[in-house]
Structure prediction request, 198 residues.
Amino acid sequence: MDNPLGLPGSPAATALLAELEARWSEPHRRYHTRAHLHAVLTAIDTLAAHADDLLAVRLAAWFHDAVYDGRPGHDEERSAQLAHTRLTACAYPAAAEVARLVRVTATHTHAPGDHNAAVLCDADLSILGAPPTTYDHYSHAIRQEYHHVPINLFKTGRTEVLTRLLTKDPLFHTPTAQSLWTEQATKNLTRELASLGT
Prediction:
């Protein structure tokens, strides 16, 4: 019987599910929580028709922030290594693909025609196109995760992130995501950028 990861039932798969659930429940997380994981998995379901390997994309979602210390690039690399090690132990044949997809989330940049990466990245960024109140909760939670960063430095870094997202063309790559989230994402990002006053 499969477990929620979509892997065939085995002691290794059961242990992996428990480990991932524990990681996503770590007390220092404010945005990168089980709620975020659930939202990404739900968005993947919405975009499922665009994926070449839906299971690999869903597993990449489970792993994409499995290691989260607030160190961009480093977290994704460690999460990718974890994915490859654990999925290999579960005898999952596409462990390398899952690890590759996790690494893509460091920049949300991928080659044209990389459908799996497009679905994962669009799902991970779907919060940008959320209703304003939901988006505001997200931006507040991000600040909480970086509470150790002085406010002036946080504003500078956040401004760079928002500006990069606003100039990313396209922001979303699948037609479904573009239709569902682009317009609201532009409004949300523009509004938050203006609120930073930098």
